[in-house]
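Consider the tokenized backbone below.
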């Protein structure tokens, strides 16, 4: 999440344009029951998001990060996925761990990713609800609903920089490690989710980081689902985010990320469950499922 923004994004900030709904219950009192439905459930994703936020800040190497890993593993295993932890150390010695989930040892052509670390030194009550937990929540609920689709899920560590701002040298530790670990066995496609649960969000995929073919898939998915083209749009630039290492390695990547620059909540305690809503998570799940179906359709699979 580097480069660009300022003025234009201020015009389409995520801040609500509608009256805020009643505040949700505190995370610890969020609905605990998961709904057993074959469809992607925004309620379930919201429940996961609240449970993760209740763990407190989940910065790299923290006890809460480990608690989160165990939570993710528990639900992935319950949905029939195998998991693997890839541990490594950042250059400053901080221990990091990516968590991968897969159904087969055969490499999948499509990788769905999110980051699950939270930025350090924000506040003791920092929930990082949208910037981290929302992506994990959508991936967990996707995991429950996906069956035979040839996808791999990865929950990345170290997206956040240790310094106040990300740079080419600081941040994206988990995604860079994963790309290096895979060597030449890279997926054909990647969809990265980041900040996908905010109320009234605007998703703005980075156009300069998106191939024409992938952009066509994205716009087709938006149209098929009947989503607003004003709320599911593109930004004519690039972001430094977890899609970049894959993109640079030749993976056809799509970064689903909400407008955040210029907001009053990003990397502050205001990024909490009060700005998350089940419908927003539901839409993010629906479009990811739609894209999975499109990419893995006969045409896409045969083109490998
Ligand atoms: Zn962040």
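A designed sequence for it:
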């Amino acid at each position: 999440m580097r480069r660009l923004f300022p003025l234009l994004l201020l015009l389409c900030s995520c801040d609500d344009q509608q009256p805020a709904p009643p505040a949700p219950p505190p995370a610890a009192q969020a609905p605990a029951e998961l709904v057993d439905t074959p469809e992607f459930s925004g309620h379930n994703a919201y429940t996961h998001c609240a449970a993760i936020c209740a763990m407190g800040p989940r910065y790299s190497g923290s006890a809460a990060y480990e608690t989160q890993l165990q939570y993710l593993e528990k639900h992935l295993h319950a949905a029939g996925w195998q998991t693997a932890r890839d541990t490594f150390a950042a250059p400053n010695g901080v221990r990091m761990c990516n968590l991968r989930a897969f159904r087969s040892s055969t490499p999948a052509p499509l990788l769905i990713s999110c980051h699950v670390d939270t930025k350090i030194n924000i506040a003791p009550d920092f929930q990082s609800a949208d910037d981290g937990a929302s992506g994990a929540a959508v991936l967990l609920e996707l995991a429950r609903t996906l069956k035979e689709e040839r996808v791999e899920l990865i929950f990345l560590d170290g997206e956040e920089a240790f310094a106040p701002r990300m740079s080419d040298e600081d941040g994206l530790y988990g995604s860079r490690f994963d790309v290096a670990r895979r060597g030449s066995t890279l997926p054909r496609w990647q969809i990265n989710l980041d900040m996908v649960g905010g109320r009234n969000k605007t998703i703005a995929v980075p156009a300069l980081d998106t191939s024409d073919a992938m952009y066509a898939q994205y716009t087709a998915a938006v149209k098929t689902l009947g989503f607003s083209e004003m709320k599911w749009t593109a930004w004519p630039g690039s972001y430094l985010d977890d899609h970049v290492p894959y993109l640079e390695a030749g993976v056809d990547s799509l970064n689903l990320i909400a407008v955040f620059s210029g907001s009053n909540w990003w990397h502050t305690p205001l990024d909490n469950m009060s700005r998350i809503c089940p419908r927003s998570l539901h839409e993010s799940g629906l479009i990811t499922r739609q894209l999975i179906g499109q990419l893995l359709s006969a045409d896409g699979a045969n083109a490998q």
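The first helix runs from residue 7 to 11.
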